[in-house]
């Protein structure tokens, strides 16, 4: 008896990423950047050592350049014979070519501990989604203000050394704004990564896929967070599929410090949404969520061959 697995993305489930700043909303996926696809229209975006099944790209303003930075979140399904499916959520920073980072300091904070407990008040209306759709507006503004104030203070104390990002993380873990007290989950699970300096990750190879909107942009893998579902049913996969991850980007150059709070969420690509072929009279044919199909795929993804 042999045990086989098939890709959870071997059918019409193809996801892109919602990425929105606290003030604006923007969603771009594989359709926008031209990801290679297989015969089933599933993305096959090879970058570095990963093959991404879904991506999402968004611009982030900074004090570095008139051109924006970009964040790309890529979802990779890991191969294995285990009973529980496992995924990597990879976060890539895109930078304009030849960008000068002299006298520049930067950090990224990923609020993973609360991601599975956040929901969007704007529902599926992607053009209205902001971090304030998932967090209280006062929480968003207070997080940004506290981060900027703390970062500038730590910069004076540590001179931009290796402890700066960790100290900022610890401050937000131990003393989050009171306006964020309603957030459920493990607030203390915040991943901190340097974006510049000797601790910054190196640029990675881009093969046939260029998963960013910036022309000729360089990409660096900043963080990779592994998630294991507790089962193959939709209810077990939902925490990963529906997670909203707040991401804080802090960049300083000279006397200027910029802080951006963005929220990332997995959504379907338009090309892989299904529509009602015969809508009822007087109604509009709208895409149906194919997350429900994920449970069906998961149920047959694990099978035995005698």
UniProtKB/TrEMBL annotation:
UniProt keyword Signal, yes or no: yes
Signal sequence segment: 1-25
Keyword annotations: Signal
Domain of life: Eukaryota
Protein name according to UniProt: Uncharacterized protein
């Amino acid at each position: 008896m042999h045990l086989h697995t098939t890709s959870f993305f071997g059918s019409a489930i193809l996801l892109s990423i919602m990425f929105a700043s606290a003030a604006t909303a923007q969603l771009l996926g594989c359709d926008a950047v031209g990801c290679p696809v297989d015969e089933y229209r599933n993305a096959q975006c090879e970058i570095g050592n990963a093959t991404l099944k879904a991506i999402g790209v968004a611009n982030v303003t900074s004090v570095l350049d008139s051109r924006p930075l970009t964040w790309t979140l890529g979802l990779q399904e890991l191969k294995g014979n285990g009973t529980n499916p496992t995924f990597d959520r990879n976060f890539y920073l895109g930078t304009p070519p030849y960008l000068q980072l002299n006298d520049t300091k930067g950090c990224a904070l990923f609020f993973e501990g609360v991601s599975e407990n956040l929901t969007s008040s704007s529902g599926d209306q992607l053009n209205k989604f902001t971090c304030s759709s998932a967090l209280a507006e006062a929480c968003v503004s207070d997080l940004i203000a506290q981060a900027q104030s703390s970062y500038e203070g730590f910069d004076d104390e540590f001179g931009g050394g290796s402890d700066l990002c960790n100290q900022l993380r610890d401050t937000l873990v131990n003393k989050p704004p009171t306006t964020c007290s309603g957030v459920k989950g493990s607030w203390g699970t915040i991943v901190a990564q340097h974006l510049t300096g000797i601790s910054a990750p190196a640029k990675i190879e881009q093969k046939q896929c260029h998963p960013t909107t910036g022309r000729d942009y360089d990409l660096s893998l900043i963080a990779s967070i592994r998630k294991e579902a507790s089962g193959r049913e939709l209810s077990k996969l939902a925490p990963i599929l529906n997670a909203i991850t707040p991401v804080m980007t802090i960049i300083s150059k000279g006397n200027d410090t910029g802080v951006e709070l963005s929220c990332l969420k997995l959504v379907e690509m338009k090309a892989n949404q299904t529509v009602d072929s015969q809508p009822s009279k007087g109604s509009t044919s709208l895409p149906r969520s194919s997350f429900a199909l994920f449970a069906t795929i998961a149920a047959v993804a694990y099978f035995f061959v005698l």
